[in-house]
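Email to the structure team, subject: tRNA-dihydrouridine(20/20a) synthase model.

Hi all, the expression group asked for a predicted structure before they design truncation constructs. Nothing fancy, just the tokens so they can compare against earlier work. One-line instruction: predict tRNA-dihydrouridine(20/20a) synthase, return tokens.
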Amino acid sequence: MKKYISEIKSPKVSIAPMVDRTDRHFRYFARLLTKRALLYTEMITAQAIIHGDRNMLLDFDIVERPLALQIAGCDAKNIGKAVKIAEGWDYDEINLNVGCPSDRVSGNDMGASLMAYPELVRDIVKETRRNTDKPITVKHRIGIDGKGILPDSFERTLLDKYEDLKNFVDTVGQSKVDRFIVHARIAILAGLSPKENREVPPIRYEDVYKLKRDYPHLNIEINGGIKTIKEIENHLNHVDGVMIGRAAYDTPFMLAKVDKFFEGGKINNISRREVIEELIQYLSNLNTNTKPHNVLKHTMGLFHGVKGSKMWRQLITSPWDKDVVDILKESLETLPKEILDARPMF
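Reply from the structure team: attached below.
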């Protein structure tokens, strides 16, 4: 079989889709800090797109781009239909979720449980490709423990060996996937929460490195427990791209440095003062139905690890006794000036 070589370049850095995190307000905040990293929507089911409030689910601001739509589902026709609907929003990429370990997702044959059905994932990607000319990517784990979720008829419910990962990529790759985003842990589909699934199964970066060595023609992006700029740099010696998750949320100011990994890229030399000034403008222009808390909750980590962190968190935590815009203006007067004006190269 002729090897499929995608003409799409992998983003050097992307920010993972995170439930209750990567909404439009977080993406706006993240885009203040990184101009180049690929952002994602939260996971949206195909059924929700077909039957739900499409504007609420799919609308985004052009400043958020480049932006990928992540879809979950298990029926190729339904996912194809949802992707066709989403064409009207012109996302930069369509991503299929084959990695979510939540029992609410896997118990409905979506997310990580789909790793047990590589032929189905292959057919979903093929159907998706019929409905869009956008890049199509798959986010998945290195394996799964499906005991308690997969049917008893399965000969094996533990698919945790490198050979299982290789078989998955071999099969799904027949559909000409543009990028595999690989979380370097297995997913335990019963008995662990999504948070525990990010911490309990041991991390196996070497499996992802080996995948890239075995399939040098494929775009391989690594995900899982990556927290620092130095770690991103190290991983890029082995794979095509790096996806960061909770670190982007907990220590967001690091995002100002990730643009340097892109071709011709430079650090986004922005200060925290400038970020807050942009947030003031953003909040001033918001629809009155939007609660300021839903914006500011994403910025809790802006001063992580530096002087003023506790004061910032206190200032932006509701309830407030005055207008939130005034509180942010006050923060520019009360937070340490040397930290407010420090830049990523500082």
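The beta strands are 13-15, 39-40, 44-45, 67-72, 93-98, 136-145, 158-159, 179-188, 220-223, 241-244. Residues 272-340 form a domain with the Four Helix Bundle (Hemerythrin (Met), subunit A) fold (CATH 1.20.120). Ping us if the truncation boundaries need rechecking.
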